Amino acid sequence: MASTRLSPAVVHDFSPYFRVYQDGSVERLVTEEHTPASIDPHTGVTSKDISISTDVSARLYLPKLAGAEARHKLPLVVYFRGGAFCMMSSSSPTLHAHLNSLVAEANVVLVSVDYRRAPEHCIPVAYDDSWAALEWAASNLGAGAEPWLVDHVDFDRVFLAGDSAGGNIAHNLAMRAGERELPHGVKLSGMVLVDPYFWGSKPTASEEANPEMTARLDRLWPMVCPSSASGNDDPRVNPVAPSAPSLAGLACARLLVCAAEKDAMRDRARIYHEALRSSGWRGEVEMYETAGEDHGFHFSHPNGENAKLLVKRIATFLCSTSKLTMDM
Description:
By secondary structure, the protein is an alpha/beta fold. Helix content is 29%, strand content 20%.
């Protein structure tokens, strides 16, 4: 009698995006689109792809510069994409279009980090890859190897930014920067978190109002970080958990937290904002909430008025100056 070979069991089903099997294999169910780096005809922003290491790459963005403006040094934004740590890349069309708009509006140089993805590469890989990219960016102060950074960046104005899981990465890197010095003593001026992926074991009101999304998000962290002993109260995903380090150690002087009214994670952003204000952290934090919108609305409706307003709000934050500095 012919033997039959059973297929490995599914242990994590995140359809319609991917499945993880008992033998560790991953089946990605969606063919991803990629947009090449280019000169954007709408904004004049130029982009190019670079390799940082064997495992880490990035897409660089340079705004259109003309005349005397080309001689002025610009803020640097190191950006971390969302996608639940599992999806998208620095060449994803929606992300590429959004960053072209942001770079043009804010007049900044931007490094969009392409970290390795879970579930093939579980946490802390995304953090370590992103930290390597931040160190690389800081290493270009002075006689660096990347002309766009050497020629055009003011390293006294370095920002972290990210959406969803990328916001989580930005927060964790700012905490790490409070313990480790970046090359050439570069300091972080500020940070922008858009719809940041923070979670916890005790549901909030916005989570209870979104039971389907909450059920999916409850399963996300244990899948992307199976080594975690604390589950959804791991300090890396729940920065206000009892075991979390003090937010007073956040290594930036200014912070903008952006949330959407209908997002299941909205309350987590609010809690983070309030916890930071009461933590003893000596920086300035602002909260910006968009009414009537859901998680990642600026990607799904990039030409909507609210998406345009969000880009303008982030640009205003990046371009504004503050005398506040962090003594770290």
